[in-house]
Design brief:
- The chain is of the alpha+beta class.
- It has one domain: Alpha-D-phosphohexomutase, C-terminal domain (TATA-Binding Protein).
- The chain has 3 helices and 5 strands, in the order αβαββββα.
- It is globular.
- A 5-stranded antiparallel sheet has the order 1-5-4-3-2, with helices on one face.
Length: 102
């Protein structure tokens, strides 16, 4: 990890969410938050940038990977809560579950 990455965010965690529709959920999260904050997505990656932290999203075959980072513990906990609760709500029919590691 470069020193630039370490200074940009001191608190990081990852969740790997099993889903048959990783791209659809990535786009839904980015579009939802994009109405209020800086967010963008491509074919299989995206990001959501809040004042208090950032989420990078990666859609792979059967998995949506969420990497959250924040400069402080409060922002980090808020990132996990906001991103996790929204994805679980959007994916209620598919019984999505977000478990953070790290």
């Amino acid at each position: 990890m470069s020193s630039e990455q370490q200074t940009a965010a001191e608190f990081k965690s990852r969740a790997e969410v099993a889903t048959d529709k990783p791209v659809a959920y990535m786009r839904q999260l980015c579009k939802h938050f994009g109405h209020k904050v800086d967010a963008s997505f491509g074919d299989d990656t995206g990001y959501i940038q809040f004042d208090f932290g950032r989420c990078d999203l990666h859609a792979n075959n059967g998995t949506l990977t969420l990497d959250v980072s924040a400069p402080d513990a409060d922002g980090h906990e808020r990132m996990e809560r906001v991103i996790g609760s929204h994805l679980e709500r959007f994916g209620r029919r598919d019984e999505l579950s977000v478990a953070w590691q790290g």
